[in-house]
Amino acid sequence: MAFFDMLFGARRPSRNRDNALQVAGSAGAQEAAYLLRAPTALMQLSEVEALTVVRFMQPTRYRAGTTIIRQGESIDTGFMVLVLEGEITVESLMPSRVEPVTVNVVGPGSLIGEMSLVDGAARSASCTASTDVRCAVLDREALEALIAEQPATAAKLMTAVAQRLAERLRDNRHKLQVYSQLVQTMQDEIEQLMPTPQG
Protein backbone atom coordinates (compact mmCIF):
# COMPACT_ATOMS: atom_id res chain seq x y z
CA MET A 1 0.00 0.00 0.00
CA ALA A 2 1.45 3.33 -1.03
CA PHE A 3 -0.05 5.03 2.03
CA PHE A 4 1.86 2.74 4.40
CA ASP A 5 5.05 3.06 2.34
CA MET A 6 4.75 6.83 2.55
CA LEU A 7 4.24 6.75 6.33
CA PHE A 8 6.68 4.03 7.28
CA GLY A 9 9.16 3.55 4.44
CA ALA A 10 10.48 0.11 3.54
CA ARG A 11 8.36 -2.85 4.54
CA ARG A 12 9.40 -5.72 6.77
CA PRO A 13 10.33 -8.78 4.67
CA SER A 14 7.26 -10.80 3.77
CA ARG A 15 6.32 -13.69 6.07
CA ASN A 16 4.88 -16.93 4.78
CA ARG A 17 1.18 -16.58 5.56
CA ASP A 18 0.54 -20.26 4.78
CA ASN A 19 1.54 -20.95 8.40
CA ALA A 20 -0.67 -18.21 9.84
CA LEU A 21 -3.38 -19.00 12.36
CA GLN A 22 -5.97 -19.11 9.57
CA VAL A 23 -8.34 -21.83 10.74
CA ALA A 24 -10.91 -20.00 12.85
CA GLY A 25 -12.06 -23.23 14.48
CA SER A 26 -8.60 -24.43 15.51
CA ALA A 27 -7.68 -24.56 19.20
CA GLY A 28 -4.65 -22.34 18.58
CA ALA A 29 -6.71 -19.67 16.84
CA GLN A 30 -9.40 -19.77 19.55
CA GLU A 31 -6.75 -19.42 22.26
CA ALA A 32 -5.08 -16.50 20.47
CA ALA A 33 -8.43 -14.76 19.91
CA TYR A 34 -9.33 -15.22 23.59
CA LEU A 35 -5.99 -13.75 24.70
CA LEU A 36 -6.23 -10.90 22.16
CA ARG A 37 -9.42 -9.85 23.97
CA ALA A 38 -7.79 -9.99 27.43
CA PRO A 39 -7.77 -6.82 29.59
CA THR A 40 -3.99 -6.60 29.02
CA ALA A 41 -4.50 -6.61 25.23
CA LEU A 42 -7.47 -5.38 23.15
CA MET A 43 -10.64 -6.24 25.04
CA GLN A 44 -12.63 -3.80 22.84
CA LEU A 45 -12.65 -6.42 20.05
CA SER A 46 -15.56 -8.82 19.75
CA GLU A 47 -14.88 -12.56 19.53
CA VAL A 48 -15.55 -12.54 15.78
CA GLU A 49 -13.27 -9.53 15.24
CA ALA A 50 -10.49 -11.12 17.32
CA LEU A 51 -10.72 -14.34 15.31
CA THR A 52 -10.53 -12.31 12.09
CA VAL A 53 -7.38 -10.52 13.27
CA VAL A 54 -5.84 -13.82 14.41
CA ARG A 55 -6.20 -15.20 10.85
CA PHE A 56 -3.61 -12.60 9.80
CA MET A 57 -1.17 -13.33 12.62
CA GLN A 58 1.90 -15.55 12.38
CA PRO A 59 2.59 -18.12 15.13
CA THR A 60 6.15 -17.67 16.38
CA ARG A 61 8.36 -19.10 19.13
CA TYR A 62 11.29 -17.44 20.90
CA ARG A 63 13.79 -19.22 23.12
CA ALA A 64 14.53 -17.87 26.60
CA GLY A 65 17.11 -15.08 26.37
CA THR A 66 16.11 -13.97 22.86
CA THR A 67 15.77 -10.21 22.39
CA ILE A 68 12.50 -9.80 20.52
CA ILE A 69 12.52 -6.00 20.39
CA ARG A 70 15.59 -3.81 20.93
CA GLN A 71 15.32 -0.25 22.29
CA GLY A 72 16.29 2.32 19.68
CA GLU A 73 15.79 -0.10 16.75
CA SER A 74 14.43 1.94 13.87
CA ILE A 75 14.55 -0.50 10.95
CA ASP A 76 12.62 -3.60 12.04
CA THR A 77 9.69 -1.86 13.74
CA GLY A 78 6.75 -3.11 11.72
CA PHE A 79 5.29 -5.77 14.00
CA MET A 80 3.56 -6.35 17.32
CA VAL A 81 3.53 -9.50 19.42
CA LEU A 82 0.69 -11.15 21.35
CA VAL A 83 2.09 -13.37 24.11
CA LEU A 84 0.34 -16.75 24.20
CA GLU A 85 2.66 -18.60 26.58
CA GLY A 86 5.74 -17.64 28.61
CA GLU A 87 7.07 -14.36 29.98
CA ILE A 88 8.81 -11.36 28.43
CA THR A 89 10.87 -8.80 30.36
CA VAL A 90 10.49 -5.20 29.22
CA GLU A 91 13.58 -3.07 29.95
CA SER A 92 14.57 0.52 29.27
CA LEU A 93 17.98 2.18 29.18
CA MET A 94 18.18 5.31 31.33
CA PRO A 95 20.75 8.08 30.73
CA SER A 96 22.03 7.97 34.32
CA ARG A 97 22.37 4.17 34.55
CA VAL A 98 24.74 1.64 33.04
CA GLU A 99 22.33 -1.30 33.29
CA PRO A 100 18.81 -1.24 31.85
CA VAL A 101 15.88 -0.84 34.25
CA THR A 102 13.14 -3.48 34.24
CA VAL A 103 9.92 -1.67 33.42
CA ASN A 104 7.58 -4.66 33.38
CA VAL A 105 7.32 -8.44 33.02
CA VAL A 106 4.44 -9.50 30.78
CA GLY A 107 2.81 -12.86 30.19
CA PRO A 108 -0.04 -14.46 28.25
CA GLY A 109 -2.58 -11.96 26.91
CA SER A 110 -0.07 -9.10 26.75
CA LEU A 111 0.85 -7.09 23.66
CA ILE A 112 4.28 -5.65 22.93
CA GLY A 113 5.43 -3.52 20.01
CA GLU A 114 2.06 -2.04 19.08
CA MET A 115 3.29 1.56 19.36
CA SER A 116 5.94 1.15 16.66
CA LEU A 117 3.52 -0.82 14.48
CA VAL A 118 1.28 2.27 14.51
CA ASP A 119 3.85 5.06 14.09
CA GLY A 120 6.90 3.30 12.60
CA ALA A 121 9.20 5.13 15.05
CA ALA A 122 12.19 3.62 16.88
CA ARG A 123 11.45 1.13 19.64
CA SER A 124 11.06 2.73 23.07
CA ALA A 125 12.13 -0.31 25.14
CA SER A 126 13.80 -3.70 24.82
CA CYS A 127 11.75 -6.89 25.21
CA THR A 128 13.55 -10.14 26.01
CA ALA A 129 12.06 -13.61 26.42
CA SER A 130 12.47 -14.51 30.12
CA THR A 131 11.28 -18.04 29.36
CA ASP A 132 10.56 -19.90 26.16
CA VAL A 133 7.76 -17.87 24.56
CA ARG A 134 4.97 -18.87 22.21
CA CYS A 135 3.27 -15.92 20.55
CA ALA A 136 1.35 -14.60 17.56
CA VAL A 137 2.86 -11.79 15.49
CA LEU A 138 1.01 -9.21 13.41
CA ASP A 139 3.38 -7.50 10.99
CA ARG A 140 2.74 -4.48 8.79
CA GLU A 141 2.25 -6.56 5.64
CA ALA A 142 -0.44 -8.61 7.39
CA LEU A 143 -2.02 -5.43 8.73
CA GLU A 144 -2.16 -4.05 5.18
CA ALA A 145 -3.85 -7.27 4.03
CA LEU A 146 -6.33 -7.02 6.91
CA ILE A 147 -7.12 -3.40 5.92
CA ALA A 148 -7.69 -4.45 2.29
CA GLU A 149 -9.77 -7.55 3.07
CA GLN A 150 -11.59 -6.61 6.28
CA PRO A 151 -11.55 -2.80 6.58
CA ALA A 152 -14.18 -2.61 9.35
CA THR A 153 -12.28 -5.07 11.54
CA ALA A 154 -8.98 -3.32 10.78
CA ALA A 155 -10.51 0.00 11.81
CA LYS A 156 -11.74 -1.54 15.07
CA LEU A 157 -8.28 -3.04 15.68
CA MET A 158 -6.53 0.29 15.15
CA THR A 159 -9.08 2.07 17.36
CA ALA A 160 -8.49 -0.49 20.11
CA VAL A 161 -4.71 -0.07 19.79
CA ALA A 162 -5.11 3.73 19.90
CA GLN A 163 -7.24 3.44 23.06
CA ARG A 164 -4.63 1.21 24.64
CA LEU A 165 -1.88 3.72 23.84
CA ALA A 166 -4.01 6.59 25.19
CA GLU A 167 -4.55 4.68 28.46
CA ARG A 168 -0.81 4.12 28.75
CA LEU A 169 -0.16 7.83 28.14
CA ARG A 170 -2.66 8.82 30.84
CA ASP A 171 -1.10 6.32 33.26
CA ASN A 172 2.39 7.70 32.57
CA ARG A 173 1.12 11.25 33.04
CA HIS A 174 -0.34 10.27 36.42
CA LYS A 175 2.95 8.64 37.45
CA LEU A 176 4.83 11.78 36.40
CA GLN A 177 2.52 13.93 38.54
CA VAL A 178 3.09 11.66 41.56
CA TYR A 179 6.84 11.75 40.94
CA SER A 180 6.77 15.57 40.67
CA GLN A 181 4.88 15.83 43.98
CA LEU A 182 7.37 13.50 45.63
CA VAL A 183 10.32 15.56 44.37
CA GLN A 184 8.67 18.78 45.62
CA THR A 185 8.04 17.22 49.06
CA MET A 186 11.65 16.07 49.30
CA GLN A 187 12.87 19.52 48.23
CA ASP A 188 10.71 21.15 50.93
CA GLU A 189 12.11 18.78 53.58
CA ILE A 190 15.69 19.46 52.48
CA GLU A 191 15.09 23.21 52.72
CA GLN A 192 13.69 22.83 56.27
CA LEU A 193 16.69 20.74 57.35
CA MET A 194 19.24 22.94 55.59
CA PRO A 195 17.82 26.47 55.37
CA THR A 196 19.38 28.77 52.82
CA PRO A 197 21.62 31.39 54.54
CA GLN A 198 20.11 34.86 54.39
CA GLY A 199 22.34 37.35 52.60
TrEMBL record:
Residues 41-164 form the Cyclic nucleotide-binding domain. Gene3D superfamilies: Jelly Rolls (2.60.120.10). CDD domains: CAP_ED (cd00038). PROSITE patterns: CNMP_BINDING_3. This is CRP-like cAMP-binding protein. It comes from Hydrogenophaga palleronii.
